[in-house]
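Work Package 3 (structural annotation) set out to generate three-dimensional models for the target panel prioritized at the project kickoff. During this period the team completed the workflow that converts sequence records into discrete structure tokens, so that structures can be stored uniformly alongside our sequence database. As a representative example, we reproduce one entry of 365 residues exactly as it appears in the project archive.
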Amino acid sequence: MKKRVLVATGGGDCPGLNAVIRAITLRAAREQNWEVIGSINAFDGILNEPNEIVVLDSRRVGGIHIRGGTIIGTTNKGGPFAWPIKNPDGSWGSADRSDEMLRRLQYLGVDAVINIGGDGSQSISQQLFDKGLNIIGVPKTIDNDLSATDFTFGFQTAVQEATSAVDKLVTTAESHNRVLVLEVMGRYAGWIALHAAVAGGAHVCLIPEIPYDIPKVVDKIYQRFNKGRGFAIIVVAEGAKPKDGEMFYEESTETGYKNVRLGGVATKLIKELKDGGMEADMRETVLGHLQRGGTPTAYDRVLATQFGVKAFEMVLEGRYGEMVSYRHPNIVSVPFKEAIAQYNFVDPDSNMVRTARGVGICMGD
């Protein structure tokens, strides 16, 4: 009788997810007694009635490594420990369905689970492991904010998209003598903004880890203008905040969605610059989910494939309760507790920040 591994993709989508799914499936196909199934929309596929489970074989995963997104879907709402339920009065609450999910997995004959996701998904992995589930994690986040791995797949693709946007904005900013503000993702970590600013040659880069001082940003921009002529590019992470100020966000009203909704910091920044005396013509561009979509770069396809192969080999070795990790030049594994213990913030004294300052990029401080 064949053994069965279930694959789930949770949290926000990310370029490279399909490459991981493909690698797990193809590596499992080399073993005579294993088969792979996928749960639609993270663990929802197991808990939905009826179940939404698909068989993953070499035919189904053929060529998917070049596609963005995930063929088995994903969600960042709810989950087995906080399943959304509607109360009799019409309000929404949540229920813990984790024990029920474990029973369903047993009924499906699942011997092991590979959960692909970011810090929230791996926190769920830890909780399920504590309940006795044979589970392995694969790190996924475009924000590169998991400290237990040098890089996560999807990050380089997001940086490439952001850099391409900077390149395009330079030409139109120069033509119109404008200040153009590019807002990129980065809730608490400014890795995308920092890398895109350096790669694209931006003049100002504002990230959550370094609160910005508007007068200093204004001074930097004015240095770029002469008799009203000049231009400047500002790259700002969505979680950036001014000194003595707060991150710009609104509370989410979506059922089962725990995170605050970010977005709009570029518009807010332009108002702050105008209030600070900036007279140049300014426009904002919000890159948004363009960073999450599209074809993954070769780098991310390779890293995702390495992660997928490693994850299944960890199943063969019984290394449950651990997450795949890239520690240059090796693909290794770390316990879930280590994986989610510390956020991967940008160190203001890091070499990357010093590089940005070294080429004249204003970090807002």
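The mean pLDDT is 92.
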